[in-house]
Design a protein that fits this description.
Blueprint lengths: L6 H5 L14 E3 L8 E3 L2 H18 L5 E3 L12 H10 L2 E3 L1 H4 L5 H7 L16 E5 L3 H4 L5 H8 L3 E6 L11 E4 L5 H14 L5 H7 L5 E3 L8 H4 L9 E4 L4 E4 L18 E4 L5 E6 H9 L4 H8 L3 H12 L3 E5 L9 H14 L9 E2 L9 H7 L5 H21 L5 H13 L4 E2 L2 H8 L1 H5 L13 H10 L17 E5 L3 H4 L3 H5 L3 H4 L2 E6 L4 H4 L3 E4 L8 E2 L8 E5 L12 H18 L4 E3 L5 E3 L3 H5 L8 H15 L8 H7 L1 E3 L7 H4 L15 H5 L18 H6 L18 E4 L15 H4 L8 E3 L1 H7 L6 E6 L2 E9 L7 E4 L50 E7 L2
């Protein structure tokens, strides 16, 4: 895995004494955003915040307390304790994958999970590596060497992107594409593979829904309920060529045994009412769909040369291939169609579940410690074992309801049921009601023209049919009153930014609290800013991921300033203060919207498990101990072990659904390849069909023409303007945390800028480095322009992560992003289309926004 050093970390020491560092609790002294602050004591700050919390609980209920903590800064310990505290109070935590837009609906629609995360060194085994909308040599510096080393041994590397980035010089093929048109490219590749007969028939028959039968009268799958009374709604059929009849596909395994599925042809089937319906395999429908995506036709849609499309298709069909569906690929309005199309290419060529193959995504897995510790009623490994045993019993009970369920399905079902009572919620309903998105989402001009009804009607239908059970607590009219942003920067990150949040959410809040080591844009508009220890001033666990195969520990290098503390200690102090103020005000308990009674007396004791977990080190020790009990880490591992070694390789992925998502065992001397349980052990997928699913026969998808993947143009989000604004990650600051670090600023352009094609600039009389105004229906920002032929005509790039206050007008690109969501992503009550934490939910998009660029007179 070496070298995996990151220069960001090497430059963090500059931030210990940076001018934006917060060294004392601050209380707003003037208007929000006015920049006038008063230094206050911790006691005063926490007392006033506690009173605001209790006011909100008494007047409107605990659901008016919102926690938008994110994983952007400081690792696992940053937000866990605040989330636990606000959860004990009955407050709401917004689902992280929605707030940071790291969810891929296209991958989820296909697999029933979005997080197949092979280890980053697994790509070394690939023979064909296709990066889509990524710039890995620029933004994946520690791990890109695995790609270059794969290339040394013969792998072909492809970069598909609208702009020519620094990564193109490391690729064998650079494929320029029109922004947001990847579905046309993927479908054309699939068309070539099927037309030339180079697809892997055995793989698609076993692993996918392509052989499943569809009724041509209703365009719904043929189900057991169609053939017999009392039948299952999730029992599907193939046409067995050997027996020349319909046959049930197995539910408990992907193995087909003696079944020989037909992939083409129309056949009659007698239904239970005696009528006849004609059925065809999904593969037949797919072939018909792909007839509209020959390389020549697709080239007109995506701009890629037809012969290049054929070359890509023929190459991946003959090689062990991987498609890296980068973080930009799933941030377009029709990203689900783009990803479903690329996954179809991987399916046709048998390219997942073996080394060097598959889509590349991210996941959290391998460290049960935090989850076990907060599920316990007391400390100790014995208590952790009780939780583990209880979870096993609950999973067994779920499986007993349907013995054909896999362990993964049962865990997902368990999380789905728990999500209806837990504090973490998908934030879409809150955004819709209180953030100001309702007007945007209902703007016909910003939506896909194929949407046949007003946006409101789809949301109303979803709520009326109770498709979204989990967010019942957010679907009420309760107005947010207290808002915590812990280790994040919502004013920078939120699509629509200040233009959306300030006049909507912020006007409703009585108390906004920013918990950070620095003053960021969100802090500038908050009522209180609470200073936490910097990364070098506290111990932390980095986010455990299959990418790295290790739990990574970061120890404290220096002591924090006198009036600064880590998040754990801060949360404990706040819990104690809430308990004190509740007692003084005669409030002994509260009742949440679900009717649960939550005591406030003894809150600190409950929060810290009798005082045992009241500081960072005690929490860290308990987490490691519980992870050993869970089998994530070797017996004998302790916090002292990690302090000495710095990391420990995982033994298993853990017991959560995202751990099961990997569907693979860890081997001590091999790279990790996701999905081997599916391909080698024939374990079904957690989708409606229990296979990788390319046909979604939900009524909304059929209505939209998206039951099968197709290409649709990106709608003109932001208005009818001539330029398409895309984005990308800055080299050293994926988020805004490092964006003001002067050392890192010196390694690239060092200030916000807009990249623009030089021919466009010449036409408009714009010079290099000149400030321009970027404008659309939602507002405007002023920024210097960098001219480059690497950008397509009518495309401009505004890189991600800049603080709004780094712009002259304190407005940036995020303020021009409408934050549209696709209406189809409110669909539910359909197999895997239902919410469970970090998974299926609407997520705003921010790529392909329409803007105008003009000179400033």
């Amino acid at each position: 895995m070496n070298p995996l050093g990151c220069q960001k970390g090497a430059a963090w020491s500059k931030l210990l004494h940076a001018p934006e560092r917060i060294l004392h609790p601050l209380k707003r002294a003037g208007a929000r955003g006015g920049g006038t602050w008063t230094e206050v004591s911790w006691d005063q700050a926490l007392t006033e915040i506690a009173d605001h919390i209790l006011d909100a609980i008494e007047e409107d209920g605990p659901e008016t307390i919102i926690n938008e903590g994110t994983p952007g800064e400081g690792g696992l310990m940053t937000g866990f304790m605040f989330s636990r505290l606000i959860g004990l109070l009955g407050g709401l935590a917004l689902d992280t994958n929605a707030t940071i837009n790291d969810f891929s609906p296209g991958i989820y629609l296909t697999f029933g999970k979005f997080d197949p995360a092979s280890s980053i060194d697994d790509i070394f085994h690939a023979e064909f590596i296709m990066y889509t909308h990524g710039n890995p040599a620029y933004t994946m510096i520690p791990s890109f060497h695995f790609t270059t080393e794969a290339r040394y041994k013969g792998a072909e590397v492809v970069l598909v992107a609208p702009d020519c980035s620094p990564s193109h010089m490391h690729a064998d093929y650079y494929v320029p594409i029109k922004p947001g048109t990847d579905a046309a490219l993927g479908l054309a590749m699939a068309q070539v593979i099927i037309e030339e007969g180079t697809y892997n028939r055995e793989f698609i028959c076993e692993q996918t829904d392509l052989p499943l039968l569809v009724r041509v009268d209703s365009w719904r799958f043929l189900r057991q309920t169609d053939l017999q009374d009392g039948g299952r709604d999730d029992q599907f059929y193939i046409w067995d060529e050997r027996a020349d009849r319909v046959a049930e596909v197995p539910l408990a395994t992907l193995a087909l045994g003696d079944l020989q599925p037909a992939l083409t042809g129309s056949r009659p089937v007698q239904l239970k009412d005696g009528t006849t319906a004609h059925v065809v395999p999904v593969f037949e429908l797919m072939k018909e769909r792909l007839a509209g995506y020959t390389p020549e036709k697709a080239s007109e849609m995506c701009g890629v040369n037809p012969e290049m499309i054929r070359t890509l298709a023929r190459t991946i069909a003959s090689k062990r291939g991987s498609i890296v569906c980068g973080a930009t690929s799933f941030k377009y309005y029709h990203s689900d169609l783009m990803l479903r199309s690329y996954l179809l290419v991987l399916a046709l060529t048998g390219n997942w579940g073996r080394k060097g193959t598959g889509p590349v995504e991210w996941s959290v897995a391998g460290f049960d410690g935090p989850f076990l510790s907060f599920a316990k009623s007391n400390i100790g490994r014995g208590e952790a074992r009780k939780v583990i045993d209880l979870r096993k019993a609950l999973v067994a009970a779920v499986k007993s309801e349907d013995p054909t369920m896999t362990e993964e399905m049962a865990h997902i079902e368990l999380m789905h049921r728990f999500s209806q009572t837990q504090g973490q919620v998908p934030p879409a309903m809150l955004w819709y009601q209180h953030w100001g998105y309702k007007e945007r989402w209902n703007n016909r001009d910003y939506n896909d023209p194929s949407m046949q009804r007003p946006f409101d009607e789809y949301i109303e239908e979803a709520l009326k049919k109770d498709w979204w059970k989990a967010p019942k607590r957010t679907a009420t009219a309760k107005t947010p009153r207290v808002y915590f942003e812990v280790g994040g920067n919502a004013m920078r990150r939120t699509r629509g930014g200040q233009n959306l949040m300030l006049p909507n959410l912020w006007e409703k809040l009585r108390c906004a609290v920013s918990v950070d080591w620095r003053m960021n844009t969100t802090g500038m508009y908050s009522d209180y800013v609470l200073p936490v220890a910097h990364h070098f001033e506290k111990m932390a666990f980095m986010f455990p991921t299959p990418h790295l195969m290790n739990l990574t520990f970061s120890d404290k290098a220096v002591e924090p300033p006198d009036d600064v503390m880590a998040e754990v200690e801060m949360a404990v102090m706040l819990a104690e203060k809430i308990e004190q103020r509740a007692k003084a005000r005669g409030i002994s308990e509260l009742t949440d919207a679900l009717g649960a009674v939550r005591p406030l007396a003894g809150l600190r004791n409950q929060f810290t498990m009798g005082g045992s977990l009241d500081n960072t080190e005690s929490v860290a020790r308990e987490w490691v101990s519980d992870a050993v009990e869970s089998g994530n880490l070797p017996e004998g591992t302790s916090l002292d072990t990690l302090k000495e070694q710095g990391y420990m390789r995982f033994l298993n992925w853990g017991m959560g659904p995202m751990s099961h998502s990997q569907a693979a065992d860890i081997k001590t001397d091999e790279t990790h390849t996701a999905f081997t349980w599916h391909t080698e052990k024939k374990v079904p997928y957690p989708t409606l069909t229990r296979r990788a699913q390319f046909y979604i026969d939900h009524e909304w998808f059929i209505e939209a023409g998206e039951a099968l993947p197709c290409h649709k143009d990106n709608p003109p989000q932001g208005g009818d303007y001539p330029f398409v604004m895309t984005s990308g990650h800055n080299r050293w600051s994926i988020h805004s945390m490092n964006i003001t670090n002067k050392t890192l600023l010196q390694t690239h352009r060092g200030r916000p800028h807009l990249v623009m094609n030089d021919s466009d600039a010449a036409r408009l009389g714009i010079r290099d480095e000149e400030e321009v105004e970027v404008q659309n229906d939602l507002g405007a920002f002023i920024v210097p322009v960098k001219l480059s032929p690497s950008v397509q005509p009518n495309q401009v790039i505004s890189y991600n992560g800049w603080e709004p206050y780094m712009y002259r007008t304190w407005k940036g690109a995020s303020d021009l992003e409408p934050g549209m969501v696709k209406w189809l992503h409110f669909a539910g009550d359909y197999g895997h289309l239902r919410y469970w934490p970090l998974q299926w939910q609407p997520v705003p998009f921010d790529r392909g926004v329409r803007v105008n660029v003009s000179k400033i007179d």
